[in-house]
Amino acid sequence: MKCWFCEADARGVCIACGRAVCHHHGYKLDQFTHAKSDTSTGFATYFKAFNVLKCQDCKLEWESWEQGKRIIK
Ligand SMILES: [Zn+2]
Ligand SMILES: [Zn+2]
């Protein structure tokens, strides 16, 4: 598998978009939190990952939820 951005061999896969990236085009995140929220019950589950790989194109947005409503900061 080749890197999405160049012709080098891929070293990993971006956690957000799934594209393969080489050493130069991948970035390591210390922590990645993915939250799943059910608005009808207000129940939220969180998926946490550590030392994950992310490509240069992806921008992760952080969301806050309070009592089933998304808070825009
Ligand atoms: Zn590359
Ligand atoms: Zn990505």
Q: Level of helix content?
A: under 10%
Strand order of the largest sheet: 1-2
Estimated radius of gyration = 15 Å
How many DSSP helices? Answer: 0
Structural class by secondary-structure content: mainly beta
H/E series: EEEEEE
Low-confidence stretches: none
Tertiary shape: elongated
Relative strand content: over 45%
The mean pLDDT is 81
**In whole angstroms, how far apart are the ends?**
39 Å
Attached small molecules: zinc ion
Largest sheet entry: 2 strands, antiparallel
Total E-strand runs: 6
Q: Which features characterize this protein?
A:
binds zinc ion; single chain; mainly beta; two-stranded antiparallel ribbon; elongated; 73 residues
Which helices and strands occur, and which strands form pairs?
Layout: E1 12-13, E2 20-21, E3 26-38, E4 43-55, E5 64-66, E6 69-71
Antiparallel strand pairs: 1-2, 3-4, 5-6
Bound molecules: zinc ion (2 copies).
The site of one zinc ion has 8 residues, from loops.
